[in-house]
Amino acid sequence: MSSFALHLLRHGEPEGAEALIGRTDAPPKAAGISVCVDQARGLEAAALIASDLSRAQLAGEAISRATDLPLSVDPRWRELDFGAWDGMAPADIDNAALARFWNDPDAHAPPHGECWSALVHRVSAAIADLAPCPTLIVTHGGAMRAALAVLCGFDVRQAWAFDLPYGALLSLRVWPGANPAAQITGLRP
Protein backbone atom coordinates (compact mmCIF):
# COMPACT_ATOMS: atom_id res chain seq x y z
CA MET A 1 0.00 0.00 0.00
CA SER A 2 1.28 3.48 -0.77
CA SER A 3 2.18 5.99 1.90
CA PHE A 4 0.38 9.20 2.82
CA ALA A 5 1.18 12.45 4.64
CA LEU A 6 -0.09 12.79 8.19
CA HIS A 7 0.15 16.17 9.89
CA LEU A 8 -0.44 16.31 13.64
CA LEU A 9 -1.08 19.84 14.91
CA ARG A 10 -1.12 20.58 18.61
CA HIS A 11 -3.87 23.01 19.52
CA GLY A 12 -2.87 26.57 20.37
CA GLU A 13 -2.53 27.90 23.89
CA PRO A 14 -5.69 27.39 25.95
CA GLU A 15 -6.94 29.16 29.04
CA GLY A 16 -5.31 27.58 32.10
CA ALA A 17 -2.23 26.42 30.19
CA GLU A 18 -0.21 26.28 33.42
CA ALA A 19 -2.27 23.31 34.66
CA LEU A 20 -2.50 19.68 33.59
CA ILE A 21 -5.49 19.85 31.27
CA GLY A 22 -6.32 16.47 29.86
CA ARG A 23 -10.08 15.92 29.76
CA THR A 24 -10.72 19.43 31.12
CA ASP A 25 -12.35 21.33 28.27
CA ALA A 26 -10.26 24.48 28.58
CA PRO A 27 -11.24 27.01 25.91
CA PRO A 28 -8.57 28.13 23.45
CA LYS A 29 -7.19 31.63 23.38
CA ALA A 30 -7.90 33.52 20.13
CA ALA A 31 -4.16 33.79 19.47
CA GLY A 32 -3.89 30.00 19.84
CA ILE A 33 -6.49 29.45 17.15
CA SER A 34 -4.67 31.91 14.85
CA VAL A 35 -1.40 30.02 15.31
CA CYS A 36 -3.10 26.79 14.24
CA VAL A 37 -4.64 28.38 11.15
CA ASP A 38 -1.23 29.79 10.21
CA GLN A 39 0.43 26.37 10.66
CA ALA A 40 -2.19 24.76 8.42
CA ARG A 41 -1.64 27.20 5.55
CA GLY A 42 -0.03 25.53 2.57
CA LEU A 43 -0.44 21.98 3.85
CA GLU A 44 -1.79 19.61 1.27
CA ALA A 45 -4.54 17.83 3.14
CA ALA A 46 -7.58 15.97 1.87
CA ALA A 47 -8.98 15.22 5.33
CA LEU A 48 -9.26 17.31 8.50
CA ILE A 49 -9.90 15.77 11.91
CA ALA A 50 -9.94 17.29 15.41
CA SER A 51 -10.27 16.12 18.97
CA ASP A 52 -13.68 16.91 20.46
CA LEU A 53 -12.21 19.12 23.19
CA SER A 54 -12.84 22.78 22.37
CA ARG A 55 -9.19 23.82 22.37
CA ALA A 56 -8.64 21.49 19.39
CA GLN A 57 -12.12 21.46 17.85
CA LEU A 58 -12.42 25.25 17.59
CA ALA A 59 -9.01 25.43 15.90
CA GLY A 60 -10.18 22.67 13.54
CA GLU A 61 -13.32 24.64 12.74
CA ALA A 62 -11.24 27.74 11.95
CA ILE A 63 -8.94 25.69 9.70
CA SER A 64 -12.00 24.20 8.00
CA ARG A 65 -13.34 27.68 7.23
CA ALA A 66 -9.94 28.79 5.90
CA THR A 67 -9.38 25.70 3.73
CA ASP A 68 -12.90 24.57 2.79
CA LEU A 69 -12.06 21.11 4.13
CA PRO A 70 -14.92 19.49 6.05
CA LEU A 71 -14.04 18.79 9.68
CA SER A 72 -14.54 15.40 11.33
CA VAL A 73 -14.42 15.22 15.12
CA ASP A 74 -12.93 12.15 16.80
CA PRO A 75 -12.69 11.92 20.62
CA ARG A 76 -9.96 9.26 20.33
CA TRP A 77 -7.55 12.15 19.61
CA ARG A 78 -8.15 13.64 23.09
CA GLU A 79 -5.35 14.34 25.54
CA LEU A 80 -4.38 11.86 28.26
CA ASP A 81 -6.95 11.90 31.07
CA PHE A 82 -5.14 13.17 34.16
CA GLY A 83 -7.95 11.97 36.46
CA ALA A 84 -7.89 13.63 39.89
CA TRP A 85 -5.00 15.83 38.73
CA ASP A 86 -6.90 17.23 35.76
CA GLY A 87 -7.02 21.02 35.98
CA MET A 88 -4.39 21.18 38.73
CA ALA A 89 -1.09 23.01 38.54
CA PRO A 90 1.88 20.63 38.83
CA ALA A 91 3.01 22.55 41.94
CA ASP A 92 -0.22 21.51 43.68
CA ILE A 93 0.39 17.78 43.10
CA ASP A 94 2.51 15.63 45.40
CA ASN A 95 6.04 15.85 43.94
CA ALA A 96 6.84 12.16 44.48
CA ALA A 97 3.59 11.01 42.84
CA LEU A 98 4.10 13.33 39.89
CA ALA A 99 7.70 12.14 39.48
CA ARG A 100 6.55 8.49 39.50
CA PHE A 101 3.99 9.34 36.82
CA TRP A 102 6.51 11.10 34.54
CA ASN A 103 9.01 8.27 35.09
CA ASP A 104 6.50 5.50 34.29
CA PRO A 105 3.07 6.80 33.19
CA ASP A 106 1.80 3.28 32.62
CA ALA A 107 2.53 1.90 36.09
CA HIS A 108 1.79 5.18 37.92
CA ALA A 109 -1.18 6.78 36.18
CA PRO A 110 -2.80 9.72 37.96
CA PRO A 111 -5.49 8.73 40.48
CA HIS A 112 -8.62 7.79 38.49
CA GLY A 113 -6.75 8.79 35.32
CA GLU A 114 -5.65 7.12 32.15
CA CYS A 115 -2.45 5.14 31.84
CA TRP A 116 -0.06 5.64 28.93
CA SER A 117 -0.89 2.31 27.28
CA ALA A 118 -4.61 3.20 27.21
CA LEU A 119 -3.80 6.46 25.42
CA VAL A 120 -1.57 4.60 22.95
CA HIS A 121 -4.33 2.01 22.38
CA ARG A 122 -6.99 4.61 21.58
CA VAL A 123 -4.70 6.63 19.31
CA SER A 124 -3.66 3.41 17.57
CA ALA A 125 -7.34 2.65 16.86
CA ALA A 126 -7.82 6.17 15.47
CA ILE A 127 -4.76 5.77 13.22
CA ALA A 128 -6.02 2.41 11.96
CA ASP A 129 -9.26 4.07 10.86
CA LEU A 130 -7.57 6.84 8.83
CA ALA A 131 -8.13 6.85 5.10
CA PRO A 132 -4.77 6.65 3.27
CA CYS A 133 -4.87 10.27 2.09
CA PRO A 134 -3.08 13.45 3.22
CA THR A 135 -4.59 14.20 6.62
CA LEU A 136 -4.36 17.03 9.15
CA ILE A 137 -5.34 16.25 12.75
CA VAL A 138 -5.71 18.96 15.38
CA THR A 139 -4.97 17.22 18.64
CA HIS A 140 -2.98 17.35 21.88
CA GLY A 141 0.63 16.83 22.94
CA GLY A 142 0.00 13.47 24.60
CA ALA A 143 -1.92 12.10 21.62
CA MET A 144 0.86 13.25 19.28
CA ARG A 145 3.40 11.41 21.44
CA ALA A 146 1.19 8.31 21.44
CA ALA A 147 1.09 8.48 17.62
CA LEU A 148 4.91 8.52 17.61
CA ALA A 149 4.86 5.39 19.79
CA VAL A 150 2.43 3.66 17.42
CA LEU A 151 3.94 4.74 14.12
CA CYS A 152 7.65 5.04 14.90
CA GLY A 153 8.02 2.47 17.67
CA PHE A 154 9.17 5.03 20.24
CA ASP A 155 9.09 3.97 23.86
CA VAL A 156 7.51 6.31 26.39
CA ARG A 157 10.79 8.11 27.19
CA GLN A 158 11.54 8.72 23.52
CA ALA A 159 8.02 9.93 22.79
CA TRP A 160 8.06 12.36 25.73
CA ALA A 161 11.50 13.67 24.73
CA PHE A 162 9.92 15.65 21.87
CA ASP A 163 9.25 19.31 22.59
CA LEU A 164 5.76 19.92 21.24
CA PRO A 165 4.76 23.45 22.25
CA TYR A 166 1.28 24.80 21.65
CA GLY A 167 0.75 25.13 17.90
CA ALA A 168 3.53 22.66 17.00
CA LEU A 169 3.13 20.85 13.69
CA LEU A 170 4.54 17.31 13.41
CA SER A 171 4.52 15.88 9.88
CA LEU A 172 4.97 12.21 9.06
CA ARG A 173 4.97 9.93 6.03
CA VAL A 174 2.81 6.93 7.00
CA TRP A 175 2.81 3.44 5.53
CA PRO A 176 -0.54 1.98 6.65
CA GLY A 177 -1.36 -1.66 7.25
CA ALA A 178 -1.58 -4.19 10.05
CA ASN A 179 1.67 -2.79 11.49
CA PRO A 180 1.72 0.85 10.37
CA ALA A 181 5.04 2.64 10.25
CA ALA A 182 6.08 6.23 9.68
CA GLN A 183 8.99 8.52 9.07
CA ILE A 184 9.10 12.00 10.59
CA THR A 185 9.30 14.52 7.74
CA GLY A 186 9.04 17.75 9.71
CA LEU A 187 8.55 19.41 13.07
CA ARG A 188 7.97 23.10 13.35
CA PRO A 189 7.00 25.07 16.41
TrEMBL record:
It comes from the Bacteria. GO terms for cellular component: cytoplasm. SUPFAM superfamilies: Phosphoglycerate mutase-like (SSF53254). GO terms for molecular function: phosphatase activity. InterPro entries: His_Pase_superF_clade-1, His_PPase_superfam, PGM_Phosphatase. This is Histidine phosphatase family protein. It comes from Sphingobium fluviale.
